[in-house]
Amino acid sequence: MSATLTRPELTAADRCDRCGAAAKVRAILPKGGELLFCGHHARQHETRLKELEAEIQGD
Fold it and tell me: For residue range 3-46, what is the model confidence (pLDDT) as tens digits?
């Protein structure tokens, strides 16, 4: 039996790492870190996150 770690759903308490607005998107980086973004900043950084092969969750 193997255990799978899951990340909790984003809540109203989660804030964008760039501007402090409500986080709508979680970007999980290949080396294990994560970034939270509002919709605006998620769109702004989407190309680079894809280049980094980040897993994008949310909007």
Answer: 556 788 999 999 999 999 999 999 999 999 999 999 999 999 99
Q: How far is CA 47 from its chain centroid?
A: 14
Can you say whether the dihedral through the CA atoms of 13, 17, 23, 50 is positive or negative?
A: negative
Would residue 47 count as lying in a domain? yes
Look at the chain and report how many structural domains it folds into: 1
- Cβ neighbours around 24 below 10 Å, total: 18
Return d(Cα 34, Cα 58) in angstroms, integer: 13
pTM of the entire predicted model: 0.85
Strand order in the sheet with 34-37: 34-37, 25-28, 55-58
In a domain, 18, yes or no: no
